[in-house]
């Protein structure tokens, strides 16, 4: 399709508005492209639609619905969180509008379904109670650093119109005997009083295995206190715990959470959607985004955001016209200072050190990037690209 990169950018901008009429037209365009045997363009629109779906389809039907799920006094700016008695450090921070100033998370299709199912329970309490069951009230979110676990917890609270009581782990843990357990009890007593979502970040700091030989006896008292308070809160409000180190958690802690959601490194399709989003407002063609995703490899969402921001800074400072070639040139300047080159045969290392092998690896990757696109991105002739491909295959 001629000028598809421009059409793609217009579709991406339009889908951000979440207008169902616009989405329907994009779906019609995708279907016509597919019917006309332009599978590459149709797949590009599919990815845009999937990214927009993960951002917009889980919006709440009404903020008031959460009142059936969480009771208590209203949190206001005049309410102060409890503090450690010895140090006066607050045990938590109160976030009245957890979605304000934060980007919409981008999820894989599987993760979107899991979060959507959980939100469905929390948003349709009346329907569940009519069937004689209660919605789940707790969730443990775990996975590698930088994958959006805390962002997800805040996003869930924003969908329900609930403020967040975000626990400060450094405020909970104390060197004074018995103080950590008391801090946990005070935190839960505070959260149980108010309508809120209690978020326990870096959860492994207070939920470690009680049989760990490296831990002193105090950790057993702390975990027992935590378990007791989780049980007491089970019928009161929503609790979300977050950890990067799920292997450290006591087995009894896992049983206290009805939902266990792992947020892993994004898959290839999600990485492309993420990079497309993070590179806005640059007019980036689909093949360029997929090439950049191939270069950086399996990375977290936070890494991809930093990579896209660094790329835009290089382009802005250089004052060059934005094009496929200038974007790849900026990426080549960024890769060496972002510690992603890795092994000598990695795509990032080849991208910087061995153009011929990089082209061969890119063509052999199965991403379906055309030789003409690669030639345009790297300022090479079509014959050179063909020769690189033949040499790599040999």
TrEMBL record:
SMART domains tied to this protein: AAA
Keywords on record: ATP-binding, Nucleotide-binding
InterPro entries named among the record's database cross-references: 26S_Proteasome_ATPase, AAA+_ATPase, ATPase_AAA_core, P-loop_NTPase
Protein name as catalogued: ATPase AAA
Domain of life: Bacteria
Residue ranges of every copy of the AAA+ ATPase domain listed in the record: 135-267
Pfam families: AAA
Family named by the database record: Belongs to the AAA ATPase family.
Xref: CDD domains: RecA-like_protease
GO molecular-function terms, A-Z: ATP binding; ATP hydrolysis activity
């Amino acid at each position: 399709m001629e000028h598809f990169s421009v059409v793609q950018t217009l579709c991406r901008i339009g889908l951000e508005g979440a207008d169902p009429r616009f989405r329907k037209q994009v779906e019609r365009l995708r279907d016509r492209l597919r019917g006309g045997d332009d599978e590459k363009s149709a797949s590009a629109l599919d990815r845009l639609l999937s990214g927009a779906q993960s951002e917009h389809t889980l919006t709440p039907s009404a903020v008031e619905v959460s009142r059936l799920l969480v009771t208590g006094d209203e949190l206001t700016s005049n309410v102060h969180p409890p503090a450690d008695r010895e140090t006066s450090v607050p045990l938590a921070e109160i976030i009245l509008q957890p979605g304000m100033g934060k980007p919409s998370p981008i999820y894989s299709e599987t993760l979107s379904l899991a979060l959507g199912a959980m939100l469905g329970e929390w948003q349709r309490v009346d329907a569940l109670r009519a069937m004689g069951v209660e919605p789940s009230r707790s969730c443990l979110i775990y996975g590698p650093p930088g994958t959006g676990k805390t962002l997800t917890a805040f996003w869930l609270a924003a969908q329900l119109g609930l403020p967040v009581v975000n626990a400060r782990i450094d405020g909970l843990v104390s060197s004074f005997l018995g103080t950590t357990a008391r801090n946990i009890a005070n935190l839960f007593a505070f959260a149980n009083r108010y309508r809120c979502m209690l978020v326990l970040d870096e959860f492994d700091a207070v939920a470690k295995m009680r049989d760990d030989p490296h831990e002193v006896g105090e950790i057993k008292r702390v975990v027992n206190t935590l378990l007791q308070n989780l049980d007491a809160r089970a019928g009161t409000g929503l609790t979300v715990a977050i950890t990067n180190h799920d292997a450290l958690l006591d087995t009894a802690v896992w049983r206290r959470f009805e939902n266990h959601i792992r947020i892993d490194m994004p898959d290839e399709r999600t990485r492309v959607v993420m990079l497309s989003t993070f590179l806005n407002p640059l007019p980036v063609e689909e093949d360029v985004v997929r090439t950049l995703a191939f270069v950086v490899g399996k990375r977290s969402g936070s890494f991809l955001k930093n990579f896209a921001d660094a790329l835009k800074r290089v382009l802005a400072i250089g004052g060059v016209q934005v094009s496929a070639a200038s974007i790849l040139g900026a990426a080549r300047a960024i890769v060496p200072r972002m510690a992603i080159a890795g092994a000598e045969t990695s795509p990032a290392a080849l991208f910087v050190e061995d153009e011929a092998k990089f082209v061969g690896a890119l063509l052999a990757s199965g991403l379906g990037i055309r030789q003409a696109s690669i030639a345009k991105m790297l300022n090479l002739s079509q014959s050179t690209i063909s020769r690189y491909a033949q040499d790599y295959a040999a």
